[in-house]
Amino acid sequence: MLPTRTHQSRTRRRALLAGVVTVATAALGIGLSTQFASAQQTTLRGAADALNKDIGVAVNYNLLQSSAQYRELVATEFNSLTAENAMKWDATEPSDGNYTFTQADAIVDFAEDNGQTVHGHTFVWHQQTPSWVQNLSASALQTAMVDHINTLANRYEGRVDSWDVVNEVVSDSNGAMRDSFWLQKLGEGYITTAFQTARAADPNADLYINDYSIEGQNAKSNKIYSIAQGLVNQGLLDGVGFQSHLILGQVPSDMEANLQRFVNLGLKVRITELDIRLQTPADANELAQQASDYARVANICKNLADCSGITVWGVRDGDSWVPGVFPGYGAPLLFNDDYSKKPAYTSVLNAWGGTVTNPTTTPGTTTPGTTTPPPTGSGCTATLSVQSPWNTGATYAGTVKANQNLSGWTVSWTWPGSERISNAWSIQGTLTGATVTGSNAAYNGTLASGQSTTFGFNITKPDGATASVPTVTCTPA
Ligand code: 9MR
């Protein structure tokens, strides 16, 4: 029998509400089911929300600071963020006891502003750990590790939903423990200590062990399995992160079965760092193969109720770590360098039940093929659509289209019933009352005539009535 979990897993709002969908559709019959089925998911985020899964992305702090297009895409397409580097030890505690959280805070703040969850990465790793840590004596190293975990877990308690507590602790050969400074100085017990510390510091966060090349069943994943078993027996582990830095055409054939055996331990599984590299330059056939590989991974996660989600390791191909480490390889992600969508984007969206309405739209650029003339006398036009309704809530998408050059916009509407916004992204203002007045976020206000941008929000509707689609007025700022 599985041991009783000693901690209350943080159940996110999204998870709770999506649970209601199933019950409500079953109880209320065809009306609601039809309504749910007709909701069209046109973004990865919408599709993931409807499945109650995370679609995450590794966020690069510099791009988040410097690029409005990057910010808009991250806010629109993803419901979960991981700091690609900003939460690692070298970024957060570069010298003993001197913590710097500017970058990590910016990413967590962005997630909160945009209604996104955060998967934290990572407390204990043999890379990107400063030399002052590596040079400590065994007892000082243990003290530093406990202090580091306590400091980060306490700082982000309630704001980071899950943590990669230890990263890459197993070696690439024979399933042995990685011969890192951690192992050499502290022995295997450092792993248990790290999890005990994290559990005590933030009892509600989900705790993961994370590694690469464990997607199929092999000596390395067998070792992770036995470590996981030991941690589960102590009530210290909630999930296993399968990084999934894959090579074109090489999604392991037994990946789903391998993940399932971890689920059978009572664990969540998560694809934590997905990218699928190929030899560059890519031709159309390779991009199609990549799309099919991505779809396979998306389907595996969809098939497993306990797969908490997929995080892709970067936004655009040019942002990826791959070419720097594997010369001649690259193009491993879902977006091109101009933010246009690759075939792999479409295949993931389709696998998770969504439909691409305009595959070539780039945030902040003109929609190709738009033929509808702008209404006269109005500087902008705004519409709302229900993305995924459930009994007592819904996720909406909003679109603002500029009919003239805009430096900002304000939209307004009044809810006819009990609908009230609970959280919103890419829009700010007076949002929570019966009358909503919202303006552009810092990054999506400047639109040339003909361009569109999007925003989104979740509502509650306690009375269980059908989610309404009010008429929206839009005025230039
Ligand atoms: O993508 C990260 C890259 O920017 C860093 O330079 C690199 C340093 O080691 O780490 C990369 O992310 C790694 C992640 O933290 C752990 N799994 C492997 C990832 C790719 O190397």
Mean pLDDT, as a whole number?
88
Helical percent range? Answer: 25-40%
Number of helices: 16
Spatially, the strands of the biggest sheet line up as 1-2-3-4-5-6-8-9
* Overall geometry: globular
End-to-end gap: 61 Å
Instruction: Examine the coordinates and then state which fold CATH places here, giving the name of the CATH topology of the largest domain.
Output: TIM Barrel
Please sum up the structure shown.
With 477 residues, the protein is an alpha/beta fold. 34% of the residues lie in helices and 24% in strands.
Comma- or semicolon-separated keywords:
16 helices; disordered N terminus; alpha/beta; Immunoglobulin-like; 2 domains; 477 residues; 18 strands; TIM Barrel; binds ligand 9MR; four-stranded antiparallel sheet; eight-stranded parallel beta barrel
Detailed description of the structure:
By secondary structure, the chain is α/β, with parallel strands linked by helices. It folds into 2 domains: 10-351, Glycosidases (TIM Barrel); 380-476, Immunoglobulin-like (Sandwich), CATH 2.60.40. It is built from 16 helices and 18 strands. The strands form 3 sheets. Strands 1-2-3-4-5-6-8-9 form an 8-stranded parallel barrel, surrounded by 6 helices. A 4-stranded antiparallel sheet has the order 11-12-17-14. Helix 1 (13-28) packs across helix 2. The longest helix is centred in the middle third of the chain and has 20 residues, at 284-303. The model is unreliable at 1-6, 11-38 and 359-375 (pLDDT under 50).
